[in-house]
Amino acid sequence: MEAAAFESNGKGGAGGVKRERGLFFTFFGLSLPSPLLYLPGMPFSKLGLSHGALQGVKAAGYTDPTPIQLRAIPLVLAGRDIIGCAQTGTGKTAAFALPILTKLGQHGKLRALILEPTRELAAQVETAFRDYGRFTDLRVAVIYGGVGYGAQEKALREGLDIIVATPGRLLDHMEQGRCKLDHIEFLILDEADRMLDMGFLPDVKRIIDRCSTRRQTMLFSATVPPEIATLAQWALKNPETIEIGRRRSPAETIRHALYPVADDQRDELVLELMKRTEFDSVLVFCRTKDRADHVAAMLHRAGHSVTVLHSNRTQSEREQALRGFRDGRYEVMVATDIAARGLDITNVSHVINYDMPQHAEDYVHRIGRTGRALATGDAFTIMSADDKKQVHAIEFFISQSVPRVKLDNFPYKYTTLLDPEAEKRMRMTGRRRR
């Protein structure tokens, strides 16, 4: 279904300037074009993967590698440490899963560990390993908190080749002597900046300390703040850096806009946007769990089929919410930023930011849940007067201004945001203060 046009300003967008996206790698501080860029249409069968891995990727329905897979798979097979920087939806899980399955070969000791920041991501990555490895005898299990220990203890006793885990629960098993990392050959630090945001870096360092030093380490992160750069210097050996696209830019297939409104009309405006928008599925982001519950209840009363995803929900409730949203049972999912990065939520036609994200980079991750895999998508962000500072931070971060849009025939209350001259004076005052 075609994405709805923005009200009052046509098809909207951020300046209408199309930028060519490229694939680059960094070697000794130099950003160089990858030679694989010039091999369009190279199939998985030419990348050196094992027969079992190739059967798995074929059964999963994939034929052509994505740019990050083209660049990463040969490097992993060659034994190189990697720092991978990519926007969401680029296929990075297969970029490390397929070569790891190839190099592990047959069932043996625990040799591969993938660390994830959330239970949902861990479960998703474990499912990918199972799918790609279905034609091998390799054993994989997921380890995370919020559920009982029994099944995890049983899997560890019976022997595993691959563990996908969140840091806290893995440390619990390690401290109880149920899991040793002496023979780890492959360590993946996935969504590293998210683990930093969630305060997991001390746990991650403790886990790395217990891994074999004779390992190959890969770090994947949408952004590389100083703390992650320091971690990479400590944990990786002469890493090759792969960067897909501009990490600070939203996908070019996303049309995004700001909707200024008085704070106490936020609910009214969201409901009106939903009425006027032709959508397939909508992901609504809120800053807190209470706000998410409030918005979900409001949309439910308005007749929408809604589910909620945040950390107060049990693991089974969260899995049910994700499954229902993917299957189309729910047309709207209201979530906190737990869903902004990495989750396998495809075919989202619209994103609505009910609240402004706390960090400018999270804006890119949130709206990146639509417009995936070169599909088009729309992202609406509600903006009140208190959000001005954050809006300026976002526009500085993405190096572009986001169009302000006013709905026709909506009963707006007065706010300076709707007064172009007042907004212009505010911007000039802000520049003088800086």
Quick gist of this model?
The protein is an alpha/beta fold and 434 residues long. The protein contains 15 helices and 15 strands.
Could you please describe the fold and organization of this structure?
The structure is a single chain. This protein is α/β, with parallel strands linked by helices. It has 2 domains: about 25-245, 3-Layer(aba) Sandwich (Rossmann fold); about 255-434, P-loop containing nucleotide triphosphate hydrolases (Rossmann fold). It contains 15 helices and 15 strands. Strands 2-1-9-3-8-7-4-6-5 form a 9-stranded mixed beta sheet, sandwiched between helices. It has a 6-stranded parallel beta sheet with strand order 10-15-14-11-13-12, sandwiched between helices. Helix 5 (about 150-160) links the parallel strand 5 and strand 6. The chain is elongated.
Element layout with pairings:
Elements: E1 23-27, E2 30-33, H1 51-59, H2 67-77, E3 82-86, H3 92-104, E4 112-115, H4 119-132, E5 140-143, H5 150-158, E6 162-165, H6 167-175, E7 186-189, H7 192-197, H8 201-210, E8 216-220, H9 226-235, E9 240-244, E10 254-260, H10 266-276, E11 282-285, H11 289-301, E12 306-309, H12 315-327, E13 332-335, E14 350-353, H13 360-367, E15 377-383, H14 388-398, H15 420-433
Parallel strand pairs: 3-8, 3-9, 4-6, 4-7, 5-6, 7-8, 10-15, 11-13, 11-14, 12-13, 14-15
Antiparallel strand pairs: 1-2, 1-9
Helix pairs in contact: 1-3, 2-3, 3-4, 6-8, 13-14
